Amino acid sequence: MSGSDDDERVDDVQIPADVEVDARSRWAMVRSVGGRALLMAVGLGIAGALLVWAFDDLDWNEVVDSVRSLDDAEIIALLSGTVIMVWAESLLTASVVEGLPARRGALAWMGPVAVASIVPGPSDMPVRYKMFVSWGYDSNTAGTAVAASGIINIGMKLLFPVVAAIGLAAAEIPLGTIMSILISGLIIVGVFVGLMIFVIVSERRTHWFGRVLDRFWRVTVRLVGRSREGSPIANWLVDQRAQSIELLRGRWGRAIASGVFVSVARVALLVMCLRFMDVPESAISWEAIFAVWAIQRGLTIVPIMPGGAGVTELALTGLLAAIAGNEFINQITAGVLIFRLLTWLLMIPAGGVALGLWRLGLRKSATAAAATGP
């Protein structure tokens, strides 16, 4: 058989369209993951460069040596603290959905968090919504549960920083001009959030606020040559408020308690990370560590970078060093890196496993339904 015949036969072979599409999809996914990984690396690199510029005593070799000094008992304690944190987050996720067991709460937290750790924005919410629906909850219940968990999370991120900022301001701790401006901004935001809560707790005030928004909306609509009558925004806000109260009746207390448990677990883990890196109580108390953690949470409420890459490290290290003193900058940096390893980077593969277990459970359910079907 001639070589030309072989070439003709090879040319006649056609690749199925679905194979080509699948290959393109895989390549697009690889590029997307690579781009996000590069974005995280850039954020961390910028944060590291800013820390080196701001702190003359920062020595990365000493930071690495501090991390390597962890003994087995300390590693076990840190991993145990991480497990407790994950369990607390699982209880919070399960608390807003009636009848949801904590094990599914763990999947519904870890899986979406892995997505949010590499995709900036509220990318965890659609994944969590799909999980709730796949477990048999209707769209209203699933949507309200996702919204409620988001509201609690954002509320904690705004409330705690305000309390911490007021405490730091009252203590007259020198934090530098930039941090002082940020803390002042957090206090202003806290006042705004307090006013919003004051409005939402009352149906009458909610309807009044909706009517105010409707007036602005009607002016905007007229500018484009259209007209709108009535109070659609006010009615929608009142309906959503009533629906949320009905679906979450009797669960708000448990959800808030779980949210506090989450905060305690995270702060305790950060305290352990710093103490194991030889940052003493005399340099910075656990109350000050809580204040710094709370302010950092408030600063990252707008997810500019995936997982807060760079922003979180810079905020934690800068604020902690401002309180403890620059002589502890290497130990503080090491403690912050360990904390971020446990609460961010480790959650990416762990969340991937959670998503895999969820998908496996769906396949098993589909197989069982097919086997028992008519």
TrEMBL record:
Record has Ribonucleoprotein as a keyword: no
Record localization: Cell membrane
A GO CC term attached to the entry: plasma membrane
Membrane topology according to the record: Multi-pass membrane protein
Annotated keywords: Cell membrane, Membrane, Transmembrane, Transmembrane helix
Spans traversing the lipid bilayer: 33-55, 75-97, 158-175, 181-201, 255-277, 338-358
Pfam families membership: LPG_synthase_TM
Main subcellular location of this protein, as a coarse class: membrane
Protein name: Uncharacterized membrane protein YbhN (UPF0104 family)
Organism: Ilumatobacter fluminis
